[in-house]
Design brief:
The structure holds two protein chains of two kinds. By secondary structure, chain A is mostly beta strands. Chain A has no helices and eleven strands. Chain A is 0% helix and 51% strand. In chain A, the strands form two sheets. In chain A, strands 2, 4, 5, 9, 10 and 11 form a six-stranded mixed β-sheet that branches. In chain A, strands 1-3-8-7-6 form a five-stranded antiparallel β-sheet, with no helix packed on it. Helices cover 0% and strands 50% of the residues of chain B. In chain B, a hairpin with a 6-residue loop joins strand 4 and strand 5. In chain B, strands 2, 4, 5, 6, 9, 10 and 11 form a seven-stranded mixed β-sheet that branches. Classes of the chains: A mainly beta, B mainly beta.
């Protein structure tokens, strides 16, 4: 059972458009929500992260929106560029211990930005 | 900036053989994590170590073992390899202490192919 559900599985957007990826979780112990970008054959790279006490966080063209009551969060990529074509993973973590807490990933969204 | 170093990058083994994957964390990071990613799948947590002690354990087969050494590097030992073990194996590292210091940074991964 996927603890973090991500949609859509794939997304095609025109250059300059907005890519929107949604995630939902059940475990209320989760208290840290990062987004990772992964190119083929590479490791996931941290894009942006948010804690539940913040409803929105923006870094450049990337914005996370967080709805704690609905247990949902989303990534918006503004002005999408061909170089943004990658797989995006949302993730969640419960900081139960001082270190070593595992990341639980969503299923991933493959984004293709057409020139 | 120095990143997480994994070796080897590619590994080809026969069924029932043994493999050892190595991970060198970012300098001053004291926590390492291992994840397994199958084709088209999201990364699945295997195990984590903090200060050379196992911190958390996920869906790691009994055939696999791992440890963290005094210089904080880690090794994942895989025995009696099966075809289903073919995957990308990622190591991540972080600082300890809670908060955003727990951000996990991923290496480029080791691609293991079991024939």
């Amino acid at each position: 059972q996927q603890q973090v559900k991500q949609s859509p599985q794939s997304l095609i957007v025109q250059k300059g458009g907005i890519s929107i990826i949604n995630c939902a979780y059940e475990n209320t112990a989760f208290d840290y929500f990062p987004w990772y970008q992964q190119f083929p054959g590479k490791g996931p790279a941290l894009l942006i992260a948010i804690r539940p006490d913040v409803s929105e966080k923006k870094e450049g063209r990337f914005t996370i929106s967080f709805n704690k009551s609905a247990k949902q969060f989303s990534l918006h990529i503004m002005d999408s560029q061909p170089g943004d074509s990658a797989t995006y993973f949302c993730a969640a973590l419960a900081m139960i211990k001082a270190a070593g807490n595992k990341l639980t990933f969503g299923g991933g969204t493959r984004v293709l930005v057409k020139p | 900036a120095a990143g997480v170093i994994q070796s080897p990058r590619h590994l080809i083994k026969e069924k029932r053989e043994t493999a050892t994957l190595k991970c060198y964390p970012i300098p001053r990071h004291d926590t390492v994590y291992w994840y397994q990613q199958g084709p088209g799948q999201d990364p699945q947590f295997l195990i984590s170590f903090y200060e050379k002690m196992q911190s958390d354990k996920g869906s790691i087969p009994d055939r696999f073992s791992a440890q963290q050494f005094s210089d904080y590097h880690s090794e994942l030992n895989m025995s009696s390899l099966e075809l289903g073990d073919s995957a990308l194996y990622f190591c991540a590292s972080s600082l300890s202490g809670g908060g955003l210091e727990n951000i996990q940074y991923f290496g480029a991964g080791t691609r293991l192919s079991v024939l």
